[in-house]
């Protein structure tokens, strides 16, 4: 082997050694030492939430509690509790069924139109709608809301809303016995090491939700 | 021989470096969770049916009385308030006949001609009494008595939920929204 070739080989081996060292993080000590054994315990962490709707749940025990008639307002109060051990971003997705019905307006005029069958007002402090996540199909209108404040372990969000109201629909347009659902889905994603991007908190939450969604899509 | 060894070592080193580089730029899985609520509500309906105990007389005559006691059954799925009225199909019948036997603990006859049931009628329930139980024909010229019908008409209106209770006068106020 020529001198040049020896030098090249040495350089290559050195580079390889440096890469290996940086990936593994090993520091070689030239001094001999025999340490006592030490066990480092790593606990796999998790994000855990519970969706609460205390007033809504109570309606199950009330006669006619979940029966609908035109214009009826029912208690429904979704909020999220962080029941895990990590700080998280919380999201609520609300899906309202829609149909073509005859609506009776306040002036008693009747108009046929395709609308969401329930209305609600977001009154919970700290919630904001991510408008570009709104979606609509032939039968459903879905809106996504983000809680602006990271939720620490044990903390709860405010309730997104306190009640929902069945539209003032002409009797019979929705047949008696029809089951209707206002679906509420709660999502959460870790706050640490998320790397969310955005000019303000709302944009960051939008990015956080995108990361959550990408992962869920990949998981299938 | 040495050349071959050098070549092998170089390839090995290159492969090692490439595998280390591929470790950078990985996407790490995020910790997430979800929960859901999708309990259903049921669309209800207000429906009522009249049923009655009735003994039609074979012949009409002045100063007679016969039994007729209509009740209302809530055949819908929602609690409701009900009212009833009875109308005669001939002018003479309206002149000479009266309805008797009103139980005013349960029914209130009003100036608009309706009898208002004072209690909330739950789904499947029947009024505990009839607004009247007899039809009386007064003192009149028998020649003026002709066959007639008594048309009994009932209406029902939904009860507005007041968190399990209802105002004591809702049996009247419930109809205000209905008329409006």
* Number of separate strands of chain B: 10
End-to-end span of chain B in angstroms? Answer: 105 Å
Q: What's the CATH first level of chain A? A: Mainly Beta
The CATH top-level class label of chain B: Mainly Beta
Give a concise summary.
Chain A is of the alpha+beta class and 220 residues long. Chain A is built from three helices and 13 strands, in the order H-E-H-E-E-E-E-E-E-E-E-E-E-E-E-H. Chain A starts with a helix and ends with a helix.
Q: Would you write up a description of this structure?
A:
The complex is a heterodimer of chains A (220) and B (180). Chain A has 220 residues and is of the alpha+beta class. Chain A has one domain (49-219): Immunoglobulin-like (Sandwich), CATH 2.60.40. Chain A has 3 helices and 13 strands, in the order H-E-H-E-E-E-E-E-E-E-E-E-E-E-E-H. In chain A, the strands form 3 sheets. In chain A, strands 5, 6, 8, 9, 10 and 13 form a 6-stranded antiparallel β-sheet that branches. A 3-stranded antiparallel β-sheet of chain A has the order 3-11-7, with no helix packed on it. In chain A, strands 1-4 form a two-stranded antiparallel sheet. The two termini of chain A are 56 Å apart. By secondary structure, chain B is an alpha+beta fold. Chain B has one domain (48-179): Immunoglobulin-like (Sandwich), CATH 2.60.40. In chain B, 20% of the residues lie in helices and 32% in strands. Chain B is built from 3 helices and 10 strands; from the N terminus they run H-E-E-E-E-E-H-E-E-E-E-E-H. Chain B has helices spanning 2-21, 91-96, 170-179; strands at 32-37, 41-43, 48-54, 65-74, 80-88, 97-100, 107-109, 115-117, 134-137, 150-158. In chain B, the strands form 2 sheets. Chain B has a 4-stranded antiparallel β-sheet. Chain B is rod-shaped, with a radius of gyration of 39 Å. The model of chain B is unreliable at 22-26 (pLDDT under 50). Classes of the chains: A alpha+beta (220), B alpha+beta (180). Strand 12 (179-180) of chain A pairs antiparallel with strand 2 of chain B.
């Amino acid at each position: 082997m020529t001198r040049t070739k020896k030098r090249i080989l040495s350089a290559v081996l050195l580079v390889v050694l440096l890469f290996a060292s940086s990936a593994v993080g090993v520091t070689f000590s030239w001094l001999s030492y025999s340490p006592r054994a030490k066990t480092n315990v790593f606990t796999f962490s998790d994000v855990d939430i519970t969706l609460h709707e205390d007033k809504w749940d109570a309606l199950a025990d009330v006669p006619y509690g979940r029966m609908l008639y035109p214009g009826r307002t029912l208690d429904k109060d979704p909020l999220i509790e962080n029941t895990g051990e990590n700080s998280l971003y919380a999201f609520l997705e609300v899906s309202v069924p829609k149909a073509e019905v005859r609506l009776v307006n306040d002036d008693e005029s009747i108009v046929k139109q395709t609308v969401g069958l329930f209305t609600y007002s977001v009154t919970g402090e700290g919630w904001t709608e991510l408008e570009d996540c709104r979606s609509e199909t032939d039968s459903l209108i879905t809106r996504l809301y983000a809680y602006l404040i990271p939720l620490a372990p044990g903390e709860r969000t405010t309730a997104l809303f306190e009640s929902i109201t069945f539209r003032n629909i002409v009797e019979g347009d929705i047949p008696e016995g029809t089951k209707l659902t206002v679906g509420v889905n709660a999502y959460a994603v870790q706050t640490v090491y998320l790397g969310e991007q955005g000019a303000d908190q709302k944009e960051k939450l939008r990015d956080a939700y995108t990361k959550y969604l990408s992962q869920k899509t990949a998981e299938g | 021989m040495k050349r071959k060894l050098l070549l092998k070592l170089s390839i090995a080193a290159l492969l090692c470096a490439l595998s280390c580089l591929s470790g950078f730029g990985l996407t790490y899985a995020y910790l997430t969770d979800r929960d859901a609520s999708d309990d259903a509500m049921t669309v209800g309906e207000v429906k009522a049916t009249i049923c009655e105990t009735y003994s039609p007389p074979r012949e009409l005559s002045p100063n007679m009385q016969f039994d007729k006691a209509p009740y209302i059954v809530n055949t819908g799925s929602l609690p409701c308030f009900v009212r009833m009225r009875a109308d005669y199909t001939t002018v003479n019948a309206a002149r000479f006949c009266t309805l008797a036997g009103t139980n005013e603990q349960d029914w209130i006859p009003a100036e608009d001609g309706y009898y208002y049931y004072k209690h909330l009628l739950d789904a499947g329930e029947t009024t505990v009494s009839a607004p009247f139980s007899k039809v009386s024909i007064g003192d009149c010229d028998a020649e003026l008595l002709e066959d007639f019908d008594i048309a009994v008409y009932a209406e029902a209106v939904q009860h507005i939920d007041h968190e399990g209770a209802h105002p004591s006068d809702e049996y009247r106020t419930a109809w205000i929204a209905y008329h409006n």
